[in-house]
Recover the amino acids of this structure.
DNA sequence: TGTAAGGTTAACTAATTAGTGAATTTCATT
DNA sequence: AATGAAATTCACTAATTAGTTAACCTTACA
């Protein structure tokens, strides 16, 4: 799967069509979407299924799916938990 | 203020003393704390008060204070909003 | 020392995520 | 095309953040 193509589809869907949406809400959705793609790519690189990742992090595959599809604006700790505990990779966050 | 020193104090407080806390919960608190310090440092670099940042992002100074002190496990979009809209700086997130 | 600005804390409501089970759909493989 | 594994969606509750007000501390400095 190509992240960029899918992200463009997302832009069309939210920016193009439902034009009354605020910039902040739009950006929030974009962010959730991008992070979802990042998680999915990292999970596949680690050769885990959604269910395996869910078990390792004490949650359910349905929830992982929701996150990977950018369906919710998750908490920082949730993302951290999935990346660090579930995939054993460091999550890097910096400003500027 | 030195981030590392303060973070060590945090380690002492949560890791040393209240030892029954789960690793995940502990890490969540550390994360919130570290991000709070990052935000505060970036805000000061931008020469803004908590109140000014609050106004720019449509919230209140009391909420900014809570975040800077790592008192809550905020959502990704909240952190993003403060950094990108409030401070005009990019928020970088990556895995690995 | 008084004052004001900046920052912290407490308390509360409303909105949203976290977490779950079950049904459904997609996808790869034979 | 049939099968089974993997992923998605829906519906729901409980827990937590987002957002706010007001009171209270701290710090700088006139």
């Amino acid at each position: 799967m190509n992240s960029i193509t899918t992200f463009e589809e997302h832009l069309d869907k939210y920016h193009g069509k439902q034009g009354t949406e605020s910039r902040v809400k739009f950006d929030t959705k974009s962010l959730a979407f991008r992070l979802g793609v990042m998680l999915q790519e990292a999970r596949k690189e680690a050769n885990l299924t959604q269910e395996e990742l869910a078990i390792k992090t004490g949650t359910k595959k349905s929830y992982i799916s929701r996150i990977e599809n950018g369906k919710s604006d998750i908490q920082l700790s949730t993302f951290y938990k999935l990346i660090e505990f579930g995939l054993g990779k460091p999550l890097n966050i910096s400003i500027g």
Residues 1-19 of chain B have pLDDT under 50 and may be disordered. The domain at 7-86 of chain B is CATH 1.10.260.40 (434 Repressor (Amino-terminal Domain)). The longest strand of chain B covers residues 91-95. The radius of gyration of chain B is 14 Å.
